Amino acid sequence: MPRRPVLSHDRIIDAAVRVADRGGLVQVSMRNVGKELGVEAMSLYHHLAGKDALLDGLANWIFSQIDLPDPRQPWRQAMIDRAASARAVLSKHPWALGLIESRRSPGPALLRHHDSVLGCLRRNGFSIALAAHAFSAIDAYIYGFVLTELNLPFDADEGVDEFAGEMQQRLPADVYPHLAEMLAEHVTHRDYAFADEFEYGLDLILDSLEARLAGHEAPRSRY
């Protein structure tokens, strides 16, 4: 008689990750995760209360994969490294984009991640309000960039000459002069890759935060 697999919370979440990676969150159910593990769905309820707990576990798992800010680094480099790690994890598991900030019962890895990011900023002189604004702006940028990158009609890591050439043919320069100019001067006939925009955009945010931190700009927050 075949031996029944030993279940645990971590094994169930790992199986749910595999299911989500193959078919997205729509495929994540107690039944499908049980099938992934070779057991009946009812067996999972000894370890998880239900699908909500399963989704909570997935959100927590995602944050367990993202590097925490290194407390030995200056805040800017720590934010750059954490952003790169988050981008890589979310690009590998795109189903997480609509999940990770939606849970009402955050797990320990999620809480530890958020606390570490805020702690890094606070230790480096950010006020509570500025740290909160920074966290929100950086993460919104990461999530938005990954979502855009994943849905481009071309490979974000490669040149876009072919796509840009097609667009140029469809965009009369006299009707869309600024788009035509950008395609001709910025995108076509150079080593352009949309993926490279990530660091540039992140630098714009960090430059602004650095200026706010140094007092070069009056803060707009009322808090």
TrEMBL record:
Keywords per UniProt: DNA-binding, Repressor, Transcription, Transcription regulation
Residue ranges the UniProt entry marks as DNA-binding: 29-48
Gene3D superfamilies the record matches: Homeodomain-like, Tetracycline Repressor, domain 2
GO biological process terms, semicolon-separated: negative regulation of DNA-templated transcription; response to antibiotic
One Pfam family cited in the UniProt record for this chain: TetR_C_1
SUPFAM superfamilies referenced in this protein's UniProt entry, alphabetically: Homeodomain-like (SSF46689), Tetracyclin repressor-like, C-terminal domain (SSF48498)
Gene Ontology MF terms in the entry: DNA-binding transcription factor activity; transcription cis-regulatory region binding
InterPro entries for this protein: Homeodomain-like_sf (IPR009057), HTH-type_TetR-like_transc_reg (IPR050109), HTH_TetR (IPR001647), Repressor_TetR_C (IPR004111), Tet_transcr_reg_TetR (IPR003012), Tet_transcr_reg_TetR-rel_C_sf (IPR036271)
Protein's UniProt keywords contain Transcription regulation: yes
PROSITE patterns: HTH_TETR_2 (PS50977)
Superkingdom classification of source: Bacteria
Domain spans labelled HTH tetR-type: 6-66
Full protein name: TetR family transcriptional regulator
Record organism: Nonomuraea polychroma
